[in-house]
């Protein structure tokens, strides 16, 4: 049986005057999933999230949260939703602790033992006034309040901006805990390693259009494996083999090389290497960064040719 749909966006459009910010955005998020929403600044991530939150109205298409209209039913939707933006602005004269309690109260929640545990884990000095906090500490206040909230959907828009690597790791652990609890998470990020570690499915947005979506495993066929190999006999003939790219020999005898290979050509390339007596071999599967760069490099090359 298919899992419950938490978020469903179809053909979403948004115009600001003559500027088309979103032209074709399709997203799906099921219960217990983490969806990574990636793209460069200006691609349309935050605009999409603002429509999901009911902060702005779409110009076309539909955005449904809990099978309700994101704009029309935003008040009801927000009762089951927690949100952390990429740049948190707080009341300057309140302390961090007072702010966490206020944010929880506004969400119909209360300060619990879990809140205290999160404050300790993130190492936040809650006695300090918000105006004295760094950007990272302001993010911590919002994240502690969000993770303390018992919601169905958590939306994070560049949430680790300003956090040090240790607190980024804590964030990742907390998201994993939400997933184990059957919660759903929409994570907008430009930190590809962060998305790759945490997300079940990924949607890549470019120029207001989702150009690829699915699991990373399903998308990896679209890019290339990296191979580092040493053989007993020369590999000079690999320069003419279809499916091999960026071939670099690392010794004069041309018996040591690094190259990338299309997934569909991997089997035939390995057969050819085996005939040369493999001494050492390492293959690296494609990463999300490889996939992401391939899309944007292809786009830049296409733009250069126009």
UniProtKB/TrEMBL annotation:
Residues 7-232 form the ABC transporter domain. It comes from the Bacteria. GO terms for molecular function: ATP binding. InterPro entries: AAA+_ATPase, ABC_transporter-like_ATP-bd, ABC_transporter-like_CS, ABC_Transporter_VariousFunc, P-loop_NTPase. The keyword Nucleotide-binding applies. The keyword Transport applies. Pfam families: ABC_tran (PF00005). Keywords: ATP-binding, Nucleotide-binding, Transport. This is ABC transporter ATP-binding protein. It comes from Lentilactobacillus raoultii.
